[in-house]
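Researcher: I'd like a candidate sequence for this fold, 447 residues long. If you have to choose between options at a position, lean toward the conservative one.
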């Protein structure tokens, strides 16, 4: 299995987006934390092909997720569970490299966590053995064109801040063509601890799995002392993009499809495809450089033969790999790539009236020749188009199907009221698409 050339990623000059070999790159990731633990090569290829066909181009995965770690065949990455004794030529790491190379052959990036955050918190990976592990990772993965590094793993930076900084600096110094981020604890962002660090190429926040009213569940992952935005993940984007130096940011873990709201109580309703779309469009239209999707069954690769599964899971990953929300994500990527999105901005100031809260929030993203508005409830709203000169064609895009309905054009009107149609089935969310009629809509370089 050979790697594809031309996969180098870098941060755009404007600091807010990524480029792939000089061309705009929209990050659309799936969460596959346990892929190396739970799947063999054939299963991984099936999964990756499934994601490729849906438009995903990044897979977030953990190299060592539990302690002690072993794959489905009983192979282990470490000898005697010791980071100073890595089984470099063993079957575990051979399979990992094979899966990473399969992804490369499909033009898919692997965003790899060296170890899940709990392994650091419990002291298994520490300042005394980290360099030995890092040297191994750099030798085996440091030159792979489709590898992105994620430090952390559902953990606060303060849990081991010196170690995380050391890991970041070491990877940045020796893996110069690979980007580095940090996957943080729920309802926090990497920017809370590492924004000014030169090794951090982009920010990642975890908006998490809680509803507006689930501020304090008396659970292990309550997060006092940090901002609580509930389901408003776009507010993390606004926070991160307000910082200097400007760095790209995205939601690396929003609510997973078919996971209980709040995680801990299996009797709670489960997040559905329309919730997944809302998180994706809200954050992307706020200026995120992409989005990460997750499915309860897929992120843990649950099978009916497993002795136990987490978060009330009952269906296998094979059954849930084709959940509705996974199909919807590709429609967002296609929409963004149809325009010069890397020069777009969040533009809520185009709304004539003050934006409303919670589910009535209208997200607006615009460039010189386009305007996108995501309307979760399908409620009427008014835009000020005085800064756009010429005919503007407008469409309603169904974010469920990806279909467009042409509605006409507006010319020379300052304030225009838009009333999305009413769906007779399913959730009534819509994307209003406005395009300047005589402009060539294409993706371009950043400025």
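Model: Candidate sequence:
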């Amino acid at each position: 299995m050979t790697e594809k050339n031309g996969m180098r990623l870098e941060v755009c000059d404007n600091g807010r987006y990524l480029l792939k070999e000089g061309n705009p790159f929209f990050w659309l990731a799936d969460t596959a934390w346990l892929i190396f633990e739970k799947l063999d090569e054939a299963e991984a290829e099936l999964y990756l092909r499934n994601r490729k066909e849906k438009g995903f181009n990044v897979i977030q995965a953990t190299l060592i997720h539990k302690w002690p770690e072993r794959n489905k065949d009983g192979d282990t990455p470490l000898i005697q569970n010791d980071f100073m004794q890595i089984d470099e030529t063993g079957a575990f790491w051979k399979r990992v490299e094979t899966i990473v190379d399969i992804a490369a052959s499909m033009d898919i990036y692997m965003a790899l966590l060296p170890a899940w955050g709990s392994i650091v918190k419990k002291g298994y990976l520490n300042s005394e053995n980290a360099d030995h592990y890092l040297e191994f990772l750099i030798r085996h993965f440091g030159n792979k064109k489709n590898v992105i590094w994620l430090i952390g793993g559902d953990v606060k930076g303060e849990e081991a801040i010196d170690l995380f900084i050391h890991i970041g600096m070491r990877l940045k110094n020796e893996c110069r063509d690979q980007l580095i981020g940090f996957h943080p604890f729920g309802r926090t962002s990497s920017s809370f601890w590492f924004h000014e660090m030169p090794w951090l190429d982009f920010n990642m926040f975890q908006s998490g799995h809680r509803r507006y009213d689930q501020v304090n569940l008396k659970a292990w992952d309550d997060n006092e002392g940090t901002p609580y935005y509930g389901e408003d993940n776009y507010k993390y984007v606004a926070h991160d993009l307000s910082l200097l130096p400007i760095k790209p940011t995205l939601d690396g873990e929003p609510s997973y499809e078919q996971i209980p709201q709040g995680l801990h109580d299996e009797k709670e309703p489960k997040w559905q495809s329309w919730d997944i779309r809302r998180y994706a469009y809200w954050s992307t239209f706020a200026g995120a450089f992409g989005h990460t999707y997750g499915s309860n069954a897929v992120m843990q690769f649950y099978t009916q033969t497993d002795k136990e599964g987490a978060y009330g899971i009952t269906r296998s990953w094979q059954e849930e790999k084709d959940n509705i929300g996974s199909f919807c994500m590709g429609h967002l990527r296609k929409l963004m790539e149809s325009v010069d999105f890397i020069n777009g901005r969040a533009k809520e100031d185009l709304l004539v009236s003050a934006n409303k809260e919670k589910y009535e929030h209208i997200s607006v993203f615009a460039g010189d020749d386009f305007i996108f508005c995501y309307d979760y409830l399908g409620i009427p709203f008014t835009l000020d188009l005085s800064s756009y000169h010429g005919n503007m064609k407008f469409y309603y895009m169904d974010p469920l199907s990806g279909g467009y309905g042409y509605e006409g054009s507006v010319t020379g009107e300052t304030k225009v009221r838009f009333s999305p149609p009413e769906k007779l089935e399913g959730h009534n969310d819509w994307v209003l698409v406005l395009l300047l009629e005589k402009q060539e809509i294409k993706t371009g370089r950043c400025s």
